[in-house]
Structures are given as structure tokens and as C-alpha cells.
Amino acid sequence: MKQHPDSAAAGNTTTTTPGLTTDQEGALRAVAAAFAIDGEVLAITPLGSGNVNHTFLVQTAERRYVLQRLNTEVFRQPELVMGNLQHLSAHVQSRLAEASTSWLSGRRWELPQVVCNRADGQAWHCCASGGFWRTLTHVDDARSVDVIETRSQARELGWGLGVFHQLISDLPVDTLADTLEGFHITPRYLEDYHRALVRTAVPDTDLARACVAFIREREGFVSVLERAKARGELPLRPIHGDPKINNMLLDGESGAAVALIDLDTVKPGLLHYDIGDCLRSCCNRLGEETLDFEAVHFDLDLAAAILEGYLAVAGDLLSGTERDYITDAARLISFELGLRFFSDHLAGNRYFRAEHPDQNLHRAVVQFRLTASIEAQERELRGLVARLQPA
Questions:
Q1: Which residue in 330, 316, 280 sits closest to 389, CA to CA?
Q2: What's this model's pTM, rounded to 2 decimal places?
Q3: Fewest CB within 10 angstroms: 277, 335, 368, 387, which?
Q4: What CATH number matches the domain at 151-388, 3.40.30.10, 3.90.1200.10, 3.10.129.10, 1.10.630.10?
Q5: For the packed helices 271-282 and 300-314, what is the interaxial angle rounded to 10 degrees?
């Protein structure tokens, strides 16, 4: 769910959503009305560009809400997702009320709140067609970006991830359900890919053949974080799971980071999954959907700004050994996402929504180009991380 300050209708006049039939509009209004929102629904508009769930912005006279239909093919136990959200919300609100959160320095930070349904007070609603829906409060006066615009913005994105990690750092991992078993366990994605190769012939194209070769050359690297975890070098912690660039909201006026959204993937994991995902999504100035494959480049200056912001807030959470794996995490998560995109392309685009048959193939190529750029600058990135370590 991506949020923009000017994306909702204003005033007290009910509007019709372009692109929706009357029946679709009526069904959405009925779902929204099932939740304990304040006021009559005035408008419902599509929101964001997510690849998994369907998301809408609901406008009432009183405030805005985010209405979302969860993809139950991905989240097969959506009730556990909502349980995690409620548990996370209670914990974060408690932490925000503490005087000890001095690293916030009085700055604004918000977490979308779950709105329960009117019928039985559950955190979700199942519509007549079987859809699993939820409603969250909207973070107003904030926006997301798909590519970084300035270095100071990069530092804010890193700072925001650091704030989120600090706020959940004392949340016991055994209180969170694992809603996506195997998520970010790269060796499992490699196994899925091998199964896809058995079931499906690789398309006879230069791009597809290049992807196969790229993956084959890096199969020995995919267990780097899991081996470190098994050795006890990287502990399990609560994580966001998907802190890519457009899941961080920035204040519409000041540009300061104010919220991290799309919390479905909150679960036990490694902080490196989050740090790696943040770096790989923020340090590609061309974004995930570019077709200019040769120009894809991992920007070290942006990486420095992100890590400066992150470590300024959350540096005390990481041991020296954990910091040493940051470069590996950036490389691995870029590779992992490319592997997932390519596997989904082979499987017929079942997981990531695609507007055309080759979109996930193109997305895979972008991530593999980014991986190669990180590899070419590995020494420089390790040096950068080392310089940012405390004396």
C-alpha cells in the first residue's frame, strides 16, 4: 500500500471511481462499510503499485483509511498476519510512549493502526465472494518514492529502517507467527527454481539463457547468511521482511521518514534480510521496472547515506560480525529477488502480478544486473561499511 498526500478525494460528495464498474464500486463500498470506520464512505480509489495485494484508499468526511484484500495464495493463514499486526501495533505504541526512545528526538513516527470489523470485532472481514479484507488507518501528509531523489533522502530511508528496528528490537521473536515460512531463505528459492526448470522449458531467448547462466555461476553463494545463522553469528530477530524503497513513507513537507508500511511480512528473521533489501531497492537509481538493463548500477554514495542513517539509530543492535555481513546481504537479497522473479516467470507469473508475460523476466534481469554491480564494487562496499563501524 503506497500512500500519497493528494491521492484521496476531498469534500463531502460521493464520487465514482474511474476504471471500476458500478457493481465493483458497490462491492468495495460494502466491504469498507463492514469495518468500524468513522463516517460515510465518500470515495474509494486504487492505491499504490504493490505486486501482491489489492489496495484501495477510502475517504470519509472524517479521515482516510487503507482497504486491502490480502492475497491468500501468498498468505495462506491471513489470520496469523493480522495477529502479528495487532501484536506489533501494541508493542510499538508502548515503545513510542516511552521516554527512553531518545533516538527519535521528538520526531514524528507513525504505525498504521488496525480497524476491526463492526460485526464481531475481528481484525478482518470476509466478503461474500470469499475475499479476505482488512482496513488500516492512513498515514496522512506523507508520500513514497520509487527511486531516490537526493542523498539526504537516502539517509532518511536508512534512518527510518533503523527506527523501526529499534522499536521492535525487544519484541520476543517467539511471539510472532511465521506467516511466510522460508521467506528470504535463499537456498529454498534455489530449490524452487530447480523444480521450475524440471517442469518448464526455459524460453529460447537471450535474456532467459543469460538468467540461467547467471544463477548457475552463483549457486555456491546462496547459503552465506544461512550458514552464518547456523554458526550463531547472526541471531534471529523480529524484522519487517520487505523494507523496499516505496514502503517507507516520507513527510510530504519536510521529507523526513515517518512510517514503514506493508507490515504483512513482519516475522522472525535476520536484520540482514531487511538491510540488504533496503540497500538493493534504494541504490538502484533506475528502479525495479527499468528496461535500460545495461545502465543498472549499485550507487555506493547512496549506500553510504543509507547506512549512515541506519547505523546512527540502530548501530548498537549489530555486533562487529553482523556488520561484516552487510555487503553479503546486499548482494544476496538482490540475487534472491532476481531468482524469485525469474522462477515466477517460468511458472507463468503466479506470485508477482505482471502486466505482460515478460515483465517478471525483465525484473529478474534488473536484479541480476544490480547483483553484478555489487560484486564489481564489493571491495569498495566492504571498505565503506568498515569506515562506518565505531572505533
A1: 316
A2: 0.89
A3: 387
A4: 3.90.1200.10
A5: 150
